[in-house]
Amino acid sequence: MGRARGGARIARGGMRIMTAHPTWAVVLAMNQVRMTRECLTSVSALDPGAERIVLVDNGSTDGTAGAVRAEFPNVEVLRLEKNLYFAGGVNEGIRSALSRGAGSILLLNNDVVLERPALGKLRAALEADPARAAVSPKIYYYDPPDMIWFAGGVVGRGLGLIRHRGANMKDEKLRDGPRAVDYVSGAAALLSRDALEKVGLLDPSYVMYVEDVDWCARAREQGRVLWYEASAKVWHHVSATSGGGLTPLKAYYRLRSGALFLVRHATPWQRALSWGSYLAWSGWLLLLSITRRDFRSAGALALGFADFTRILFGAPPPLRTPESFAPPAGRR
């Protein structure tokens, strides 16, 4: 049995067998020391474990990098001087891991907690078929811990809506099992080295949201498979960085990123249908925001849908930043 580059073994007879070893866990953090500590504790306790753990500190201002260096000597800290947002931050960690021989990347948000055997189950699923680009676990809400947040990603073929399978359901209500899916969640997924080298890294032009869906669409365009492994379990503090519930930031960037995805991966007739479905979705959220007197989110939804329409019909994305949707200083 010999070795080949790119997470593969060469068996007798020259057959190429994919292997996920060694696995590097790449954890992205921006502030949130407490959650980061809880996440890294669970990653360090994985059995079997990751061969290396890297924390990408995405411009934290609360001392996250120093706390991790002091408390987790087994964790390498890659400190970024400014927030590169999700794709930019994880790409730095992925590049570092691949350059030093990683066979697979366990990509994690710092607000997740993994059950102890999760990595072994994900690795077995990834290695079972060389066509698999990535495997995602079942992800529950951290609270309540028996409520599903993600059981595989679905992209509607007609309307173009992106949704989580099984969201807000309990296990007994979902007919579940391992299966091919349209996308895995960037909150927790095991990515193969071969796929990362052939598909490329995540696209930072999305800024926030849908980067994982885009990467998976590019993988599927190459004939690769995205897999969901129901037996591997993770718990997620949902939207810990961007804020829980609907916020102006999420309202705007879900629409902006949705438009970019449709322009790049949908047919003209699918884009036309999706405009109507996104109009209905945005209108419902707008009405809900006004009813709750959340006028900042309502304004962001209106702006987001206007930009969604422009992008969908050929205009470049307007130059806006996540910081422009932050709450006023007195309300933070």
TrEMBL record:
GO terms for molecular function: glycosyltransferase activity. CDD domains: GT_2_like_c. InterPro entries: Glyco_trans_2-like, Nucleotide-diphossugar_trans. Residues 26-199 form the Glycosyltransferase 2-like domain. Keywords: Glycosyltransferase, Transferase. Belongs to the glycosyltransferase 2 family. This is Glycosyltransferase family 2 protein.
